[in-house]
Protein: EamA domain-containing protein
Amino acid sequence: MPPDAPQARRGWRDYALLLALACCWSSTYPLTKIGLGSIPPVTFISARSLIAAGFLLVILRARGLRLPTDGKAWKLFAFQQTINSTIPFLMITWAQQYVAAAPTVVLASTTPIFAFLITWAITRHEPATLLKLIGAILGLAGTAVTIGLDTLGGLSSNLFAETVILIATISFACATIFGLKLTDYDPMVVAAGSLLFGGTVLLPLALIVDHPWTLRPTAEALVATAAMGIFSSAFGLMLFYMCLTRLGTLTTNAQGYLRIPIGVGLSVLLLGEPVPPNLALGLVLVMAGVAAMTIPRAHYRKWVERLRGKPKAG
Structure:
């Protein structure tokens, strides 16, 4: 499949899927903040992954589908889950103990920027246009503003945690590119297999490190964990692979642009978090950068032609 699906094949249903994906994933960080109030990071991620896997396995059984048994499929599931969920979510979940949900949304939504930089510098499977370069610069500037203005008076205690979120975002970008190798499988099968692997791998570590039988999670934390498992993980990953198949990597990455205002809004609504000036400015810059990078080339050409003026006939 080509890196970006042909524009002619896209319809409003495809973009509705993209919006649904943005809604699912934008809820991740506010819900994580709630869950971490009484559940440690490793146990939280393992639990949400296993809840999501169990939910999807029930649906797969109802649909008459089964998980593949060949080693090739599970190697792909394992690698994709490791770089798309297990490692980055461990990093972000740890970092969210020190960083509020709203700035986490902005920092974690820079995936399209890093995906572009990796494509331009390493894979080169898509053209690096001037508009994409401008978008990458704007996005990186927004990231610097989100982190940097907090540290002008000295090193911030959150600086390391914010850097960890950015490193996790680079892992997300790699997973978006690698995810094209999985488009031959049913999206629900990929999501279920990946989540089952991730939750099972982390379960022994959670038992050893967190001793979950000794925890006393609040009702809010349990609801947040279940909601994360069903909506953010199960539906989110399923929609992610559906969007990759229908829209390709470039347009699928546009959900980063969509989930910034949704995620910040949820952080304010559910957690009562303020929006400081540096976050607002960083949000605007990141949104402008990601939007510039996801504008279809055909639309960009039309705008350029309009700016230059139509050539005279004859």
